[in-house]
Amino acid sequence: MENKKVRIALTKGRIESKAVDILEKVGYDVLELRNKGRKLILSIPGENIEVVLAKAADVITYVEHGVCDLGIVGRDTIMEHGGKFYEIADLNFGICKFALAVKKGTDFFAGYGVKTVATKYPNVTRGYFEKKGIDVDIVKIEGSVELAPLVGLADGIVDIVETGTTLKENGLEVCRNVAPISARLIVNTVSLKLKQERVLEIVDLIKNERIRENS
Ligand code: PRP
């Protein structure tokens, strides 16, 4: 069995902890990952695997550029940023959705005026409304998008909804579901050719663990 070095990029935060659990269940020694401190490159002993921790959009950049062979990232980031890589598996965790939300009791689609939508995801939002043939003004917000309709900046928001608590606590509600989201395993296109055996071995281990957990 070839043992070429493989580098995996993990999205820091919520996805990271679940991804580390999966790597452990696959049989890898994740001690260094669990006790990482401020280290950003961690190794899985005996496997010739390095794990890189990065922000979601950077996971895509590292995989696209081939400095990481594999990546675990949310479909939200994939939809917003796009990129040239293979999306090889739906990992079936980090499940949430993109939704259009409005102030409770308001009708986003009422009237003829062009509506304003605040979002951290302008490309997803543009794509959604273009497909519907609806003209909207999009305002890019960096965080806590729920604030925008409350202070009168926007008629609605397109954002991630997981439990719905943030919307509820701020007097907002889902008006339309936009797209389902979950964590995805992505692969650099060249790695899949040049390190095929090793990369597919890791992909299969991860996929099989997901099948086991979800069955
Ligand atoms: C996301 C999203 C909502 C919240 C929804 O933010 O932007 O604010 O989670 O979750 P809920 O439906 O379970 O309440 P996140 O926590 O990722 O932080 P961010 O706003 O800094 O991106």
Strand order of the largest sheet: 2-3-1-4-11-5
What proportion of the residues is helical, as a percent range?
Answer: 25-40%
> What molecules are bound to this protein?
1-O-pyrophosphono-5-O-phosphono-alpha-D-ribofuranose
Structural class: alpha/beta
| Helix/strand order | EHHEEHEHEEEHEHEHEEHH
Provide the CATH top-level class of the largest domain: Alpha Beta
Q: And the CATH topology of the largest domain?
A: D-Maltodextrin-Binding Protein, domain 2
Number of domains: 2
The span between the termini is: 30 Å
State the major sheet.
6 strands, mixed
Shape: elongated
Instruction: Count all strands and give the number.
Output: 11
CATH architecture title of the largest domain: 3-Layer(aba) Sandwich
Q: Can you count the helices? A: 9
Spans where pLDDT lies below 50 across 5 or more residues: none
Kindly describe this structure:
This protein is α/β, with parallel strands linked by helices and 215 residues long. The protein has two domains: 6-94 and 182-214, Periplasmic binding protein-like II (D-Maltodextrin-Binding Protein, domain 2, 3-Layer(aba) Sandwich); 96-181, 3-Layer(aba) Sandwich (D-Maltodextrin-Binding Protein, domain 2), CATH 3.40.190.10. Helices cover 36% and strands 30% of the residues. The chain contains nine helices and eleven strands. The chain has helices spanning 14-25, 31-34, 56-64, 75-81, 122-132, 147-150, 165-169, 189-194, 196-214, and strands at residues 6-11, 41-44, 49-54, 70-74, 86-90, 96-103, 115-119, 136-140, 156-161, 172-181, 183-187. It has a six-stranded mixed β-sheet, with helices on both faces. Strand 7 (115-119), helix 5 (122-132) and strand 8 (136-140) form a beta-alpha-beta unit. The radius of gyration is 20 Å and the shape is elongated. The two termini are 30 Å apart. The relative contact order is 0.21. The mean pLDDT is 96. The chain binds 1-O-pyrophosphono-5-O-phosphono-alpha-D-ribofuranose.
